[in-house]
Amino acid sequence: MENTSQHSPEDLLKLENQLCFPLYAVSRMLTKAYQPYLQALDLTYPQYLVFLLLWEHEELTVKELGEKLLLDSGTLTPLLKRMEQKQWLSRRRDPRDERSVIIGLLPAGRELQKAACHIPEQLLGHMGMSVTEFEQLRTQLNTLLTRLT
Amino acid sequence: MENTSQHSPEDLLKLENQLCFPLYAVSRMLTKAYQPYLQALDLTYPQYLVFLLLWEHEELTVKELGEKLLLDSGTLTPLLKRMEQKQWLSRRRDPRDERSVIIGLLPAGRELQKAACHIPEQLLGHMGMSVTEFEQLRTQLNTLLTRLT
DNA sequence: CAATATTTAATTGCACACAACTAAACATTG
DNA sequence: CAATGTTTAGTTGTGTGCAATTAAATATTG
């Protein structure tokens, strides 16, 4: 009859009973697990996410990147400028709407995909999860993400 | 016979097939969901996590805080100094081991607990999850956290 | 016990995140 | 079409995160 979960106001305030903490911690630890692979490519984790989108779409506006990554221009503009400096991508105004900035993949950025294509498999190993567990967790998180946005 | 998950190297590089992205995004969106409640208390999210531990333990060394939150002194030291300035906690060297710094809850910090004690319930509502779902996800994340640390 | 190694915080430097604000381009509306 | 409103990036300032280094205190070891 013992219930492992505690629901009194005080117990709800314990770190171990929070959902937010494991989310926060796992997110950071997973980023850290990517580190050795990304560092070899001179990439940061959010830069890698930008590449995941550009490798698929070739060209995206800052607004579209922001919508997909849930990041605003305050984060993206400096990040994209750093990536531009490395010749990975180009930034240019859309001639049909000068408010928009189009981010385009450059050859050096396209080249990186070859070096990055095995990262997901390697990380999967790091996490030690079955494909079923993996997809279950991804589905749950995506559902939660929809509710939070 | 259709398989919704794609396992070719190219598909594994799509953002939508990553586990890391929903983790990263949910973590940030959840932090943002805490924002209005924490802002009312002049707290940031990691500062709130420090309080969750201090409300339970009263006194902890920087090392212990770091072990529990998976943060290092490079993050904690400036964060704790800001909290010290607000008179929420004290920082003093341990007389028995001058290397350690003991973080102690001050009255103003203890007071905050009263104002914060309903935050978890309110967030639970925000997430729109059943208690079962909540605990299932928390368990999965904690397992993953163990593997990653 | 002296030399060396380890532990613990603090510091430095860089890259996010994000709120708040600005400025330019475009859209709407009377 | 002029005035107003909206959209889009960029800017500024603050607060994390974290790797790498430093410095002081303690532990270990020959």
Task: Report the major sheet of chain A.
Answer: 3 strands, antiparallel
Q: Mind telling me the CATH superfamily name of the domain at 19-117 in chain A?
A: Winged helix-like DNA-binding domain superfamily/Winged helix DNA-binding domain
- Overall average residue pLDDT of chain A: 92
| Helical stretch tally of chain A | 8
- Cα(first) to Cα(last) distance of chain A is 38 Å
What is the H-and-E element order of chain A?
A: HHHEHHEEHHH
Strand content of chain A: 5-15%
CATH architecture identity of the domain at 19-117 in chain A: Orthogonal Bundle
Compute the CA-based radius of gyration of chain A: 19 Å
Biggest interface, and residues per chain?
Answer: A-B, 61 and 61 residues
| Oligomerization state | homodimer
Number of strands of chain A: 3
Short description:
Two copies of one chain form a homodimer. The first copy, chain A, has eight helices and three strands; from the N terminus they run αααβααββααα. By secondary structure, chain A is of the alpha+beta class.
Quick tags:
homodimer; 149 residues; alpha+beta; Arc Repressor Mutant, subunit A; three-stranded antiparallel β-sheet; 64% helix; 12% strand; globular; disordered N terminus; DNA-binding; WH_DNA-bd_sf (chains A, B)
